[in-house]
Amino acid sequence: MKKIFCIMVSAVVFFGLFCGCGTAKKEDKKLSVIATIFPEYDWVKNIAGENIKNIDLTLLLDNGVDLHSFQPTANDIIKISKCDLFIYVGGESDEWAEDAVKQASNKNMQVINLMNVLENEKKEEEAVEGMQVDEEEEEEGEEVEYDEHVWLSVKNAQKCCEAIKNSLSKLDKDNESDYQKNYEDYSKQLQKLDGEFTDTVKNAKRKTLLFGDRFPFRYLIEDYSLKYYAAFIGCSAESEASFETISFLAKKVDELKLPYVITLDGSDQKIAKTIIKNTKDKSQQIVTMNSMQSTFKDRDNYISIMQSNLDSLKKVLN
């Protein structure tokens, strides 16, 4: 399947370049930057600052599109092939991106693979006690898969932003000092938020979270040494939890006396409600955390969303 997709990418790129021959205009050219997901997009905006007017910035995934099921269009592939900077996550869901990079017509393209930037921080997917594992996951056996949700760590965000700053500086040396200053200012905001997470957890009554949903917050949780239980792993395609999973999680709520069950943004909350119905007192509340899969690029920003997640943690842990 991957070989077929690679051939398709090559054909699309060739066709796009052939059709574009002789049509390019020699005028002041904006830097073309393509980000696959919202956090990358927002980081570029903050590091570019006023220089964003000189950048043609594209967010590839539309609002609400799931990274794990996204497939690029022919126009996406052609645009990536010609861009100056391409930023993608680099996990299993992004195998198509690796092929697109290999076939790119712009051989001077800067490429940022977040999983490569965070090589020493990336974590293997894990199934904790009580978690329902996909049949497909069980069949794959010993094949190592890494958790893709690296952006849900403020510490990781700082390293990713540094990589973006470095690439923009290489592409636009005239504004290198601006990118450096903007990066330093933004990094201070991230460090401040990191400190707030640290203080919240340090002073918390509880140290365990329970998700009646998928669990994409592995990096955030491990940053602050929290424990968790969840219905599914972060990349799971499952939407129906088994009786065993519901029963286990409901008993954990009772055992740990947890007043909240967490769901993700966009969830129908069905699993969380079922867990609550199976607890002894059935009085728990549902709290939402944002995984940035359903964000709106002109309304939201990375720091405000992570601040919202911090507010949810303050409620859940105290």
Write up this protein.
With about 325 residues, the chain is an alpha/beta fold. About 45% of the residues lie in helices and about 15% in strands. It has a four-stranded parallel sheet with strand order 2-1-3-4, with helices on both faces. The chain has a two-stranded parallel sheet with strand order 5-6. Helix 8 packs parallel to helix 12 (about 300-315). The termini are far apart.
List the helices and strands and how they pair.
Elements: H1 2-20, E1 31-35, H2 38-48, E2 55-59, H3 74-82, E3 85-88, H4 95-102, E4 110-113, H5 114-117, H6 135-140, H7 154-171, H8 176-202, E5 208-215, H9 218-223, E6 227-233, H10 243-256, E7 260-264, H11 270-277, E8 285-289, H12 302-317
Parallel strand pairs: 1-2, 1-3, 3-4, 5-6, 7-8
Low-confidence stretches: 1-27
Tally of DSSP helical segments: 12
Strand order of the largest sheet: 2-1-3-4
Give the helix level as a range of percent.
40-55%
Which radius of gyration do the C-alpha atoms yield? Answer: 21 Å
Element-level helix/strand string: HEHEHEHEHHHHEHEHEHEH
Number of strands: 8
Strand content: 5-15%
What's the overall geometry? globular
Mean pLDDT: 88
CATH topology of the largest domain: Rossmann fold
Number of folding domains?
2
Please report the first level of CATH classification, the CATH class of the largest domain: Alpha Beta
Q: What structural class do helix, strand and pairing data support?
A: alpha/beta
